[in-house]
UniProtKB/TrEMBL annotation:
Cofactor (UniProt): Zn(2+)
Catalytic activity entry: 5-dehydro-4-deoxy-D-glucuronate = 3-deoxy-D-glycero-2,5-hexodiulosonate
Documented EC number(s): 5.3.1.17
Biological pathway: Glycan metabolism; pectin degradation; 2-dehydro-3-deoxy-D-gluconate from pectin: step 4/5
Recorded family membership: Belongs to the KduI family.
Protein name per the record: 4-deoxy-L-threo-5-hexosulose-uronate ketol-isomerase
Gene: kduI
GO biological process: D-galacturonate catabolic process; D-glucuronate catabolic process; pectin catabolic process
Keyword terms: Isomerase, Metal-binding, Zinc
MF terms (GO), sorted A to Z: 4-deoxy-L-threo-5-hexosulose-uronate ketol-isomerase activity; zinc ion binding
Residues the entry annotates as binding Zn(2+): 205, 207, 212, 254
Amino acid sequence: MELRTAVSPRDVKNYTTERLREEFLIQNLFMPEEIKLVYSHIDRIITGGVMPVEQTLELKAGEELRAEYFLQRREMGVINIGGAGEITIDGKVYEVAHKEAMYIGMGARDISFASREASCPAKFYLNSVPAHHTYPTVLIKPEGEPEEGVVIVKKENKVELGCLEQSNHRTICKYILPGQVESCQLEMGMTKLEPGSVWNTMPCHTHDRRMEVYLYFDIPEDAFVMHYMGEPTETRHIVMRNEEAVISPSWSIHAGSGSQAYTFIWGMAGENQDFDDMDGVDNRDLR
């Protein structure tokens, strides 16, 4: 598990491109037969990628957590951006298809990941944060019929925003949030840009009460996303490629513009789960 420390906005304004990427960019998340984990001191979030091919991969706490098992004091959200896969939790097998998700509550001990077909392996993207209470473990599907242990994303949690004229026509699918899937502090969802649109989260904002991590994907090899961060009057950028993640502190804006449409997963952690609790930044005030 790689460790990343917290940073001050006063220091970040002096970072070089290389230093920005070292502190905030997470690369090589999905490596065959590996679990990649990055622990950030910012709200103690762990960002990870799991790519089983022919093997079953078990999630262990590691020395860094000083815990008996990974979710002894934590909760976790997982979204599969690859082929069909399986997550086994304390002996119960969940089939998790492309763009389906899971919330796994604190106290789950034995967690393993597998792919259904080695020729099209699953790619499990995870966010994990400290927890104080055990909420039910559930499989989350963007659409379908309700059944025991499965949550279908509510119609009101599929939000269409923006317009083609402003190059930000997008659809937000909220997976983990109060009123749908309960958690201690974790929220996760996915935003898909429509063809012809490239801007996400614009006008941009900050939210002092929670941080955020983005995973950008569905990006062709020759394309990229410019991820914007920093204080509104001291903006910085990081060039992002396919299936790379970026850590966004609570004091930082988080917005992006791609060379073409793309998809990204957002994960948030902090003291406030009110999705709309954000401080907007007028486009005219950006520098």
